[in-house]
Structure prediction request, 711 residues.
Amino acid sequence: MQKLDLENDISLLTGFNTKITFKLKKIGINTILDLLKYFPFRYEDFSKIYNISEIEPNQNVTIQAKIKSLKVHRSWQRKIIIVEAILEDKTGQIKAVWFNQPFLKNILKVGKFFNFSGKVSFDDKNEIYLAHPIYETIDLVNNETKHTARLVPIYSETKGLTSKLIRNIIKTALKTIKPLKEWIPYEILIKYNFPEINQSFKLIHFPNKLSEALRAKKRFAFEDIFLLQIYNLKQKLNLNNQKSFSIKTDLEWLKKILAKLPFELTFSQKKALWEILQDLNKEKPMNRLLQGDVGSGKTIVSALSCLVCAKNGYQSVLMAPTEVLAIQHYNTFKNLFNYISLENQPVLGLLTSSNLLIFYENDVESKVKKDFFKKEVLNNKINIIIGTHALIQKTIEFNNLGFVVVDEQHRFGVNQRAALLNKKNYIPHFLSMSATPIPRTLMLTIFGDLDISLISELPKGRKPIITKIISPENRLKAYNFIKEQIKIGRQAFVICPRIESSNNELNKEDILKLDIKNVEEEYKKLSEKIFPEFKVGMLHGKLKSKEKNEIMQKFKNNEINILVSTSVIEVGVDVPNATIMMIEGAERFGLSQLYQFRGRVGRGEHQSYCFLFTDSNSKTTRLRLEALIKAKNGFELAEIDLKLRGPGEFLGEKQTGFPDLSMKGLMDVELIKNSREAANLLFKKNPQLDFKNNKELLKKLEEFQKRIHLE
Ligand code: ADP
Ligand code: MG
Prediction:
């Protein structure tokens, strides 16, 4: 038979008909590699061969026996066909029974020898028998078995694809593939006791001992995380070889600004700012993640950094994921200017799909046309540009861009950066801000290419948000409480579930209809029946951006008391007077999402509240929602959520930027530690990480990069 490569289509495997190939493809197995990566989820131990006289009830046994007799009959309802055989070895006899497999009479011929593996059970006459044991012809030449007399792999089965069939196919594939070239350096294999690649595939499917299967499994889990670590190192290296502007900070000047702020920066804000300013000073591009709990005050840190750049004549951009947020940041900057009244106040620009504003000195704000805005940026007439990600990347050409801040998006690929290149081909310094709480081990792996600044405390005087799970019978009480709060001047958010939970089974359109209806219904109910005396507003993704902005602005000005919204409101919105976050269908949101919602309140001096409405009585729901109450901060919550749900669910693609990465491996602290150690070992030996002598590794790395498609 022709030898196959891993990339080959499974239809090239001989011996299996197209029906089978079709079924395999239906469960996503297209290539030989897919097939070999279809790992068993457990093994049954049929390795011990017993004499019939020795066997006892409830054992998993393999016997080597001759068919003494065989009969086929129907059950008394005449529905089930029963094949019954008497098996015999030198020491005794035992009955074996199969249901609905009439074809067995053509295989299990009287007088022939087979291996039989199965569980020993009792029949209705209290005699032991083997219930549908697996049978296998004894291969006297190779003395090699697949289904009996060994650890037998059990696969996840679908109709027409039994474990037995899958074993046969995989065994054939293992025999048919060309020998694979190892890509993990041998010293690493040895150091961590991983089997070699060809061996690994054999051992994970057909191990002789469980420990062998485990070693293979560990190796496969290691692969992706190891590649990720190398990828991170390479990213760092690439950036280190690039040039950026050295932007200096005038400390006396900065101190004066800090003194004029309406609040004192927290210790960790100061520290983060200091780390950023030091990076700006370097001639290499900064690549930093500013991580801080919701409401910890990341914006002011980035704003001060932008000011430093402007003072040095460099342009900065601040990119936000939504228009609402971009406008909010723009207003924050304007306010900041107000407080600090600089001598040479930078010119500020806002660029979103419906807003093009330039804010000059002396409070002059002009609405401008896009061409003019672009020209002003190109001529270095606008120093700080705030807008949405997409728009800035698509439309703007800079004069001397020195600093890029991305809010609420972790990753920013090299190509995305290249699109922001300035004329001199210098790479701008880059800062990413995120409130997604991630456990430290995870953070160091997923964001291993970034340096990290952590804002670990909230500004002084913030009161913890009182969080309560509200069952249906307490709904009215909660409404009354909200009434009281609004009467004394506070405001409330009401969140209804919505599309973005990508793992929902309904199709997207259904959910869209359903959810918008939810917000609309809720809005109608609250404005007409529950809170007719107050002003209720509504916000969701289907509104035009102009409408959205108007509503947000009204809410900020307290012209709207209650804002009913979808998860649009999730990131970043800052309305310090809002003290109530009420979440409908709380069980339908992820914990980190709920955490983000709650972070919308508790931003001012007033006591704030978060009400989680749920009709669900399920225990996991309770556990998860209670975790939100118990956790002292986002990181603690992250640890809990990680344990409850695993990182795959905790961190969606949106958070990690890694759609396909095997998230399971990220749970395993030892694995992460080993993979980092191993990658560093490589780095030491090969400081350029060019892998000239390991083409296989290079290929793997390229594939990996494509797979996680960061760019
Ligand atoms: P986030 O880190 O979630 O983006 P923001 O930057 O929106 O948080 O800040 C939340 C609120 O806290 C804002 O209203 C901001 O003005 C305020 N704030 C920031 N730093 C401080 C501080 N050191 N003391 C008091 N209030 C602060
Ligand atoms: Mg923010």
User: Anything to note?
Assistant: Residues 480 and 629 are 22 Å apart (CA to CA). The two ends are 41 Å apart (CA to CA).
